[in-house]
Amino acid sequence: MKEPKKNINDEIKAKSIQLITEEWENLWIMPLKEALEKASETWLDLMEMSKKDDLVIAKLIDYWKYLYKLKKLDQKNKQKSKTPELKTVRITFNISEHDLDVKRKQAFSFAKDWNPIKLVLVMKWRENQYWEIARTKILNFITSLEAYYKLDNNVSRVWNMLSANLKPIK
Questions:
Q1: In sequence order, which residues have a C-beta less than 8 Å from that of residue 108 and are 6 or more positions away?
Q2: Largest Cα–Cα distance of the chain, in whole Å?
Q3: Eight-state DSSP code of residue 42
Q4: What residue ranges of the chain are covered by domains with CATH 3.10.20.80?
Q5: The pTM is what?
Q6: In degrees rounded to 5, what are phi and psi of residue 121?
Q7: 46 in helix, strand or coil?
Q8: pLDDT in tens, 85-138
Q9: What are the Cα distances from residue 115, in Å, to 75, 82, 102, 120, 162?
Q10: What DSSP string describes 92-142?
Q11: Alpha-carbon gap, residue 51 to 53, rounded angstroms
């Protein structure tokens, strides 16, 4: 986390400041020395919030607690902004039922993390002439994943490969 640069305590360069307490109560304009004394009496820091011409607005806060809250807020925002990663599940034309179950379990584990998947069925050699059978095979596999995923686009064919994008159901 990049630490925000705010002037605190002795770093504030002003003759008079407008002081605000921790509870946002306005204590009006006073000399800097008097405000620093109030801060030391209450065991708090004096932090510069903003400047208006010659007047500095400062607040009494616990500076380390303020930095801690900023760090926690930054961590929370990073977690929320995490984008799901596109995962690929690859099946073949002559895949056995057991292997399909393994691929299905793999897709379910991706659904737990809310990751979209790209389902790919690759055909080789003479399998290319049976692309309608391959299409039904990939559609059957997609229907078996209906509890967790929905089809984003139609199943598309590119050369010897059928592919479909699936999005997790939220």
A1: 145, 148
A2: 89
A3: T
A4: 9-80
A5: 0.51
A6: -120, 115
A7: strand
A8: 888 888 888 888 898 889 888 888 888 888 889 989 888 888 777 778 888 888
A9: 21, 11, 17, 16, 20
A10: ETT--HHHHHHHHHHHHHHHHTT--EEEEEE--GGGGGGHHHHHHHHHHHH
A11: 6
Structure tokens at 140: 């059957």
**The CATH number of the domain covering residues in 87-168:** 3.30.110.10
- Sort 59 into a burial class: Cβ within 10 Å, 0-12 / 13-18 / 19+: buried
Q: At which residue do the structure tokens 């400062």 appear?
A: 58
* Tens of pLDDT, residues 98-113: 988 898 888 888 888 8
Q: Amino acid identity, residue 43? A: W
| 9-80 has CATH 3.10.20.80 classification | yes
Six-digit token string for 54: 């010659």
Q: Which amino acid is at 126?
A: R
Is it the case that residue 82 has pLDDT exceeding 80?
A: no
